[in-house]
Amino acid sequence: MSTIVSVPATATTAQERPHVVPTGFQHPLDPLTADEIAAITFTVRHHITSNPELDSIKAVKFITTYLLPPPKKAVLAYLGIPLAPETAPEPPAQIVRKAEVDFLDVVNGFSYNVILSLHSEGKWVVDTFDKLPDGVQPQISVEELIQCEKIVKADQNVQDLAKAVGVLPEQIYCDGWSIGYDDRFPQARRIQQALLFARFSEHDNLYAHPMDFVVVIDANTEEVLQIDFPPHYKSTANGPVLSVPKTEIPPLSSAEESFKISNRERIPPPKKAFDFLPDLMERTEEFKPREDIKPLHILQPEGVSFSMDGNELEWQNWKMHIAFSHREGIVLSTVTYNDHGEIRPIIYRLSLAEMVVPYGAPEYPHPRKFAFDSGEYGMGTMANELSLGCDCVGQIHYLPGAYVSHSGAAIVIKNVICIHEEDNGVLWKHTDYRPGGRTQTTRRRRLVVSMVCTLANYEYIWNYLFYQDGSIEIEARLTGILQVYAQQQGEPNPFGTTVAPGVNAHYHQHMFSFRIDPMVDGIKNSVVEQDIIPIGGEKSATGEDFNFAGNAFTTTETILEKEGGREYDFAKERRWRITNSARKHYASGKDVGYSISMKGGITPIMARSDSWALRRAGFTQYPIWVVKDVEGPKGGRMWPAGKYVPQTRAQPEDSVGSWVAGKLPVKDEDLLVFLTVGTTHIPRPEDWPVMPVEHLNITIKPQSFFDKNPSMDVPGTKDGKSVSAFSGQSSADACGSCH
């Protein structure tokens, strides 16, 4: 197995790039290959066995192995991208390819972090080897989540409890979850909670059959530590009353005692099937697929309009690097726009940095349900292998991804990132309505870079959309199956919706943090906060001299000077833009910039500020955070909830809330912007058994960046393949004109 990153003969090599010193890779931000991952983990094992001081490490379980990105300025110099307007790029410097590894010693329970570098002879060498502080846990692996179910199914107490409500051992299934917050267990133990369900036939929708207890396991020792029985609600004349006096989680106890404390009866899982696979629905209900929907094909007879060079893409003046990340999913880097021959940088790096899903039921152990799906599991490791014609339709280009297994071998997802073009309606249009006037219609095409991830019951579809007018959109689509819990017949549920008999879907939120490392015409940027203000305010009256008609409104702008988080103000329709004061628009006189619109996703966090969830997910408190980028030996400021998220009980030092406490200057600086968006999900019966897609989005649009609409040169559209739906008339025969 090769340990050298080779350059394909057909690719643009380092020697062919005008600003580049020779290297052993095609692009400095290319993710680690499967061969590299294997070589890196082999090097780590060899380092352990060849160093006597490390002989206490007995059983290595690899958790993460990923690229440690080179310094930003070195990458920009390599690519020939200047740091400021109207300046030459910095001279290139040698870039050393580095990797970062997290692993566990299963025997002693300790965690370790290793940094390695690739030397010129093609060998990986260990640079640093650090034991992490006690209780610090790297992310939970896919293999651990799968093993959780095996541990639970093999436990005799679990089998006996399941049997008591009519579930056989082979019918027991569970979803492994992070523990959330539970201070009954020491942080040194590697803890998961298991949410239990029954599956009564092969491929049966197990979420239709929730069970009435929750199991806690240790993933290292592979043992069940605790079985919790949530209390339930009873209807009274004064409203719902819980079966226990308080919602606080009780002390550790036996399963028998835990059930006794819950003060309620056992609840058999509902037996009715609610399947989503068509062949099963035909057997379990009156089901017949629709027959009145006809094929719709997407054809590009002359091929796609984008080109790929390894992981670099070019399309409609855009150029960017696209990479797989085990944690973030999709990472877009060095995003530039060719403005009539001038290559203008816009974003250095864009990705999902974190997310959290806090649930709203207060009774134990449900408050533990607030998973950090990116920081605790890794969005990339949960990504689907995409299917042509199903997940992605049309002419598709796929990129692969690879992450490490416990053994150190690579797990490869062949088609993990989907790239394609879509028609997206009208880009711009105008008709001169006067007699003899002409019209021009230009249709909008967009580039889609997407990934689909399954987090147990939920699916997330991540779309990064690029438009011909220089705009960018981040879109998250949510689908999949609701997380549900068992409900007694007639039981009230003040914190959820009964979506089917015996099936309670708890209220919850999905909160996302997207990280933008901007370089709008260079890396020295500022953030401007703009409010829209009615003239005169509430104390003024229509008829006054300065606003006689009462219609006037204007804008006020404030440049953010120091690090911090900012509130959204609906009354002022607050918005932000990222600017570069070193370049101004020729007409507006404004600093060039890109505006950020978050109206498609602004959501306030519902948990209290001192809640378990907010102690760990402080990034949800503001829709926008602005901090200075501070690069160190292990990269810059990346993770708003901290680098190591599982089992934290407070906001770590390396998180956004701690960063902003430094109040570093962010005006005309190399800065970072973290955007928090989300949705509050009050489940509907129509979300069951599989939820129709829900959307939220962020738009990033040029503002005083281009001289004028940069899409004026997009050709007008008159599709000769379009026909009348019923008459057979073609577009060539139709009345009217596109241009």
UniProtKB/TrEMBL annotation:
Catalytic reactions of this protein: a primary methyl amine + O2 + H2O = an aldehyde + H2O2 + NH4(+)
GO biological processes: amine metabolic process
Domain Copper amine oxidase catalytic: 296-712
PROSITE patterns: COPPER_AMINE_OXID_1, COPPER_AMINE_OXID_2
EC number assigned by the record: 1.4.3.-
Cofactor: Cu cation; Mn(2+); Zn(2+)
Keyword annotations from UniProtKB, A to Z: Copper, Manganese, Metal-binding, Oxidoreductase, TPQ
Coiled coil (UniProt feature): none
Regions crossing the membrane: none
Span of domain Copper amine oxidase N3-terminal: 138-231
GO molecular function: copper ion binding; primary methylamine oxidase activity; quinone binding
Chain positions found as 2',4',5'-topaquinone: Y458
Entry-linked SUPFAM superfamilies: Amine oxidase catalytic domain, Amine oxidase N-terminal region
Residues annotated as the enzyme's active site: D373, Y458
Quaternary organization: Homodimer.
Family assignment from sequence similarity: Belongs to the copper/topaquinone oxidase family.
Name of this protein: Amine oxidase
Species of origin: Lentinula lateritia
